[in-house]
Amino acid sequence: MEKFAFIIHPLDVKDVARKFPFTRYLPERVVENAFRLLPPVKVSHISGVRTPHGEAEGWFVACPLTARQMLALPREFVLQRIIQAGKVAEKLGAGVVGLGAFTSVVGDAGITVAKNLNIAVTTGNSYTVATAIEGTRQAARLMGYDLRRIHVVVLGATGSIGKVCARLLAGDVGKMTLVARDRSRLESVASQILYESGLAVRVTSDVKQAVRTAEVVIAVTSAVDTIIGPEDLMPGAVVCDVSRPRNVSRQVAEQRDDVLVIEGGVVEVPGPVEFNFNFGFPPRTAYACMSETMLLALEGRYENFSLGRDITIRQVTEISALAKKHGFKLAGFRSFERAVQPEEIARIKARASRRQEALKAELPRVAP
Prior knowledge:
This is Shikimate dehydrogenase. By secondary structure, the chain is an alpha/beta fold. The protein has helices at about 15-20, 30-35, 65-70, 75-90, 110-115, 125-140, 160-170, 185-195, 205-210, 250-255, 290-300, 315-325, 340-365; strands at about 1-10, 40-50, 55-60, 95-100, 120, 150-155, 175-180, 200-205, 215-220, 240, 260, 265-270, 285, 330-335, 340.
């Protein structure tokens, strides 16, 4: 049987409290300082990953640092803890280990971790891109959009993930704007897209202006702070936030019930899989990055994959083909760590339609 592991960590102190309820009564800094002293540990055994082409088992390994600590503590310290978690995976017998959440963001996106382990490493970013694009297409369709007739904005379009997302969508959209800080690199990406798809895209460094008229936004920047707030989006906007840290402020979820923010797709894992750990997903479903790790194990491909800042269309296409072969498929959406059901999307669509009509009705009164 093939074997894999996946490194997880608490996003914040509230996640720690799920495992250790007493910590909810303690100051956050006290909890964080205490947990940073703990070594990485195995938290659960994963069984039942079974397809007509193979079977695998694995483990969740916890790196006890919160997202805030991952970004604030010295990079060398954080990388060493991630490597220690990888060593736990090695001892468990895993042939490949996936880097979850912020463990795939710190440093050079897995390259240093891979150099210090004797097993294969992946960030899972290739399948994350594939499901983000698929999820965006599905979400746009559920919101009533035809991609050929709407404005799509890609934030962080000069990065490896953003560039791949833009290139994959360019052949299907009517209007596209690429956003990043470096104008010359933006124009280079725009030229590549024009050559590949024939689509002439706009480029800008003004995030606010770009998203204001966008029906669909894909956010994949490396910004440390959020860059999209409640006031920035039009009613009915669909935002796929692939970035970690997030590009979209949580205030959007709290204040805008007429927009749809998704993290990408929820993947249905084939077989009677048991994760034996509650990470907030429906049964037998997982993040795309977890699923990429399982796919590589099922194929017996114990080789580094999706490392560094350069994700290629070839990698996205290849992992998508493996997912189809083994029966992994998109099963739903996530938004700010919770599942979003089709019924909720229908309500968002209805509210957006009402507000769009209200805005149109107000135009004659404010026009000069």
